[in-house]
Amino acid sequence: MAKCGECGPGYRTPLDAMKGPREEIVYLPCIYRNTGTNKPDYLATVDVDPKSQTYCQVIHRLPMPNVNDELHHSGWNACSSCFGDTTKKRNRLILPSLISSRIYVVDTGTDLRAPRIHKVVEPIDVYWKCNLANPHTTHCLGNGEIMISTMADPSGNGKGGFVLLDGETFEVKGNWEKGTKVPPFGYDFWYQPRHNVLMSTEWGAPKCFAKGFNPADLEKGCYGGNINVWDWTTHEFIQTIDVGKNSIPLEIRFLHDPDAAEGYIGCALSSAVHRFYKTPEGTWASEKVIQIPNKKVEGWLLPEMPGLITDILISLDDRFLYFSNWLHGDIRQYDISNRRKPKLVGQVFLGGSIVKGGPVKVIDDPELDCQPDPFVIKGKRVQGAPQMIQLSLDGKRLYVSTSLYSGWDKQFYPDMVKEGSVMLQIDVDSKKGGLKVNEKFLVDFGKEPHGPALAHEIRYPGGDTTSDIWI
Description:
Elements (H helix, E strand, L loop, with lengths): L13 H4 L7 E7 L10 E6 L10 E6 L11 E2 L15 E5 L6 E5 L8 E6 L1 H8 L2 E8 L5 E7 L5 E8 L6 E4 L13 E4 L4 E4 L5 H4 L16 E6 L5 E6 L6 E6 L7 E6 L4 E7 L5 E8 L3 E4 L5 E2 L3 E6 L5 E6 L4 E6 L7 E7 L11 E4 L11 E2 L2 E2 L7 E3 L5 E5 L4 H7 L1 H6 L2 E7 L6 E3 L5 E2 L9 E2 L16
Antiparallel strand pairs: 1-2, 1-34, 2-3, 4-5, 5-6, 6-7, 8-9, 9-10, 10-11, 12-13, 13-14, 14-15, 16-17, 17-18, 18-19, 20-21, 20-26, 22-23, 23-24, 24-25, 27-28, 29-30, 30-31, 31-32, 31-33
């Protein structure tokens, strides 16, 4: 370990990060778009320190200056990719807006527990300088720049690209990608410089999914089904890996080991996890390693209900894989010691669309003998289902939030929109595997001052398993 003052932000290695301090606060964007509350989205600071008098409470709210942004995912101005640079500090949270295309730069360095707005990048800068819109994932780069993946052109047509921000001024510098060839869709991304590669994924065209999910859009070519491979050095789009038409591959995670030439991706609609890897020839390929079977149902949108894998992550020691099935309502933990044959070692149900007493009747289920009970914690029945997940650095606590995207929340879980989302904590057996709900932990965003809110992605101020990349 480097001595204090000899290093930049983050940790030297993923295993060093596992020895980092326990999280005391977390940040979550909270959304009011599509809820009926005409208020700006805001960034919530939540106390997760069990020794604190404000444990499980929102201790600060930072409202944005605009309404209907749809805050979604966030990232840092600097992370472990800048560990060797003593001039860098992890003190700005980059907060793109999925629908308005506005990008907020939030100062977390002045007061960790009470962030403030540092700068606002208006949509016009993204439109005119990059011909891109609908920003999604943010990663800091080792050279100090900040890169944000996007999902569309300014008209809402699908287009995979990347916006570069200056790491000091946060001005839009232009596009990262070069050449005329670009993917038809964008969403998430991860890079691995030691293998000269960046991988990006595909959700769909915002003009199709913005107001909700229509199955008819699948045949119109509105949704993606590929992993897109980029040359890290030349910034050129070089290869497509087909993981299934309309499979909607969302979150992509390389193993944390920077030497690793493999990782996993969760495909929402096909409810499959694929392992992607580098071939002996130097190209990239994938193989399906987990398949969640559909359930035959009555009283739902379609006659078969997919699990809808919406978030996925890997523990810092690259031993366990976690993901959420937003429709079925469960979180799963897999031992990935054998990379090609993940082994299910933990599972909990936290709501979902197939609970007993609900409008959906399960006719045939390859996995369960009966429909799960509604999930109740501290006297509250949880509406919605597990969606965004974040693992503590030491791998012992898994935090969960229930909102996916306000337009789809409204369609699939209207009661959650009325009552607000929640954040939960799962205790993890990080040795043998196993998941257990912490019955003492509940953050209820249904009780917010301006009305029920939809809380989304979870970030730790000191970095976490999905924001830090080692190079």
